[in-house]
Each structure stands twice: as C-alpha cells, then as structure tokens.
Amino acid sequence: MSKLRAYLAALTILAMAMVPLVLPAVSTGSSNSSQVYASAAGAPVADNNSNNNDGGGDNNGGDNSNNDNNSNADNGGSDDNADNSSSDDNADNSTSDDNDNQSDMGSPPAPAAAPAPPPAPVCSTPGQESMFQSADGRIVVHVFGSMTQSIKFSIRYPIDPASVPPAPGPVVGGLLFQLIAETCDGSPVPVLPAEVNLGAHYTDADATGLNETNFTVGRLDTTANQWRPTPKQAADPASNLTSATISEMGFYVLYQRP
C-alpha cells in the first residue's frame, strides 16, 4: 500500500513536471488546427472570389473584346469612310482637273476643208478657155479661146452598151458616153464652130492586160452605124490619158484597137 502511494506520488510529480512541456505543444496544435480550419474555411471563399474574379475577368474580357470590336469596327468604319472620302475627293479632283483641262484646251479645231473645185461654167465665153467634165472627172472637154460662140456641154455617162453597136475592140474602163453641145439658150449644136479637146482618163486597173499605146477614141457614125477613129488624137500612157481634137458631137468610146 505504501508502495502504491509512492508510485502515485512519483507519477504526480512527473505529470506536473511535464505540464509545461505539454501545454505549448497543445497550444501549438490548437493554433495549427485553427490555422488549418481557417485555411479550409477560407478556401471556398477564395475559390468563390476566384470564380467571381474569373467571371469578372471573362465579363470584363467580353466587354473589352466587345469594346475592342466596337472600337475596331468604329475605326474600320472610319477608315472606310476616310478611304471613300479620299476616293471621292480624288475622283472630284480628277473630274475637276479633267474639266479644267478640257476647258483650258477647248474643242479641237475643225480640220480645214479641202477647197472646192471651181464650178463648171454654164456656158463658155468667146475668146476664153474653159473646162467641162463628167461627175467623176474621167471625161474632160477643153474649150480653147478660139471658140467664137458661147457653148455649154453635157456629158451623159455611162450609157447602156446595148443602145449602140459594139466597139471595134475592148472598151477601156467602161468609157462609153454621149457628148452634147448646146447654145446658152438650149439650142443644139451638132458641129462646133471651132475644135475642142476631148480627154478620156483611165486607171492602171482599167489598162491591165491591154496595150495602152493602142488606145483609141472612136466616134459613132450614125449614118453607117459604125465606130470610126477620130482623125486627131494622141495617147499618153504615162498620164493614163488618151485625147482627141474634135468638132462633132455624138457618141464616143475609148477602146483598144487591134
């Protein structure tokens, strides 16, 4: 019994000696537990705040993105408008410049008209030379100053080849025509009081395959109904011209004699 008491006393003394050592550990454990609890308790709050922050970040990001897009859209619109404005300005300036240049330059001068040929005389004048010609200029009548009477000439060309006998040779360039002379009041003059020169002009194509030195001016003898060469004529191949000195009116032809 005495041993038991001594053992208990020893345990009491040991327990009392260990109290100072055990209390800090307990206190530290409690503190750590509090901190752990506080951390555990605070974690959800931090998560919520984090989530809220994330949400806020997302929202802010969305807003910012929208703002950025709106800003970009606004800027894009501004750029487009600016570009359009620049284009419009340039177009206006270009148009204005073109108009100014056109106004400065004015209309181009009209090309000078070729001088009109002198009109054919209605009648020749005695003592003066004059010219009468067909519409295409291929047949020309030259009246000399020796003509003592006022005469007007008419050239009917072309005429129907079937209305006259065939020419003695190939007709050159279709030069088959009727020559008529009248006084100024319209009276016919079958034979002139003076000779005139009758010229027939042809082209190189008209003379292809033919001998130009044999080109002949013929007059239709209506009594015999035959073509006869004019007595006074000359061939000028270099000028594509055959001419004759005549005084009688009627049908004439340019042909190649055999």
> Regions with pLDDT < 50 over 5+ consecutive residues?
25-103
Instruction: Kindly report the average pLDDT value.
Output: 75
Number of domains: 2
The CATH class name of the largest domain reads Mainly Beta
| Counted beta strands | 10
Oligomeric status? single chain
The spatial strand order of the largest sheet comes to 1-2-5-9-8
Helix count equals 1
CATH topology of the largest domain: Chondroitinase Ac, Chain A, domain 3
CATH architecture of the largest domain: Sandwich
Percentage of residues in helical conformation? 40-55%
Largest sheet: 5 strands, antiparallel
Architecture overview:
The chain has one helix and ten strands. With 258 residues, the protein is of the alpha+beta class. The chain folds into two domains: 104 residues; 127 residues, Chondroitinase Ac, Chain A, domain 3. The strands form two sheets. The protein has a five-stranded antiparallel sheet, with no helix packed on it. A five-stranded antiparallel sheet has the order 3-4-10-6-7, with no helix packed on it. A hairpin with a 4-residue loop joins β8 and β9. The N and C termini lie far apart (188 Å). About 31% of the residues have low confidence.
Key features?
Chondroitinase Ac, Chain A, domain 3, 40% helix, 1 helix, 10 strands, 27% strand, rod-shaped, 5-stranded antiparallel sheet, 258 residues, alpha+beta, 2 domains
How would you briefly describe this protein structure?
This protein has 258 residues and is an alpha+beta fold. 40% of the residues lie in helices and 27% in strands.
